[in-house]
């Protein structure tokens, strides 16, 4: 998959545009200024937006081309990102460190998904927040983007299983109109949630 993403992000244009995800943009105001982690952040559109607002921004992706694009975008907007290339388990982020984790279309293989989500929870401070949007399993009926493998898509019940020890302020499945660069265009089905870590 890393080769796939390196090829996509090596293109001159930004694959998912320059503007932040709408759900994230609307929700970030609920998070006090602090340290935010953006897993699978790609070309940096969400991380750069948060940095512009004064958050301390950390991000990672497995694609080196993604980091190049993110660093370029951050420089254009005059902000700084702590952006790493690698898998989560190899990056050694400290536990109970981040004030929020922002997961926007962070689709990982089914066999590692639950551990990936639980690892992220360990990095969150108690009462730390999660903002999440990802394609639902109904997305297979749409052509607006996302994995074509149902096991990499989300459902509300699956989210509850993957994110134990949180309280959900919002958990919903919705059909939305996507306009995010070349690869997220048209109607799509997404799972969205906002949650807080209990302890």
Q: From the 3D coordinates, which CATH architecture would you assign?
A: 3-Layer(aba) Sandwich
Instruction: State the low-pLDDT regions, or none.
Output: none
User: What's the mean pLDDT score?
Assistant: 96
Number of helices: 7
Straight-line N-to-C gap? 34 Å
CATH class: Alpha Beta
Percentage of residues assigned to helices? 25-40%
Number of domains as seen in the coordinates:
1
How does the overall form come out from the CA principal axes? globular
Q: Output the CATH topology.
A: Rossmann fold
N to C succession of SSEs: HHEHEHEHEHEHEE
Question: Sheet bearing the most strands, described?
Answer: 7 strands, mixed
Strand order of the largest sheet: 3-2-1-4-5-7-6
Main structural class: alpha/beta
**What fraction strand?**
25-35%
Q: Write the CATH homologous superfamily.
A: Vaccinia Virus protein VP39
The total strand number stands at 7
Rg, Cα atoms, Å: 15 Å
Description:
- By secondary structure, the protein is an alpha/beta fold.
- It has one domain (2-197): Vaccinia Virus protein VP39 (Rossmann fold).
- It has helices at residues 2-9, 22-27, 45-52, 64-77, 88-91, 110-123, 156-162; strands at residues 35-38, 56-61, 82-85, 98-104, 124-135, 166-180, 184-197.
- The chain has a seven-stranded mixed beta sheet.
- Strand 4, helix 6 and strand 5 (124-135) form a beta-alpha-beta unit.
- The termini are far apart.
- The model has no long low-confidence stretch (mean pLDDT 96).
């Amino acid at each position: 998959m890393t080769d796939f993403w390196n090829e996509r992000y090596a293109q001159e244009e930004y694959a998912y545009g320059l503007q932040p995800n709408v759900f994230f943009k609307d929700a970030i105001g609920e998070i006090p200024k602090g340290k935010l982690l953006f897993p699978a952040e790609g070309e940096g559109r969400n991380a750069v937006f948060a940095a512009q607002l004064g958050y301390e921004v950390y991000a990672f992706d497995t694609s080196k081309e993604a980091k190049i694009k993110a660093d370029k975008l951050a420089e254009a907007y005059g902000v700084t990102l702590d952006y790493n290339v690698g898998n989560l388990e190899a990056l050694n982020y400290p536990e109970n460190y981040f004030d929020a984790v922002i997961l926007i279309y962070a689709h990982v293989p089914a066999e590692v998904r639950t551990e990936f989500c639980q690892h992220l929870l360990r990095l969150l401070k108690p009462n730390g927040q999660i903002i999440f949007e990802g394609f639902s399993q109904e997305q297979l009926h749409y052509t607006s983007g996302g994995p074509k493998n149902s096991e990499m898509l989300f459902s509300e019940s699956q989210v509850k299983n993957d994110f134990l020890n949180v309280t959900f302020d919002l958990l919903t499945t919705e059909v939305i109109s996507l306009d995010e660069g070349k690869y997220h265009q048209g109607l799509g089905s997404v799972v969205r949630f906002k949650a807080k870590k209990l302890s």
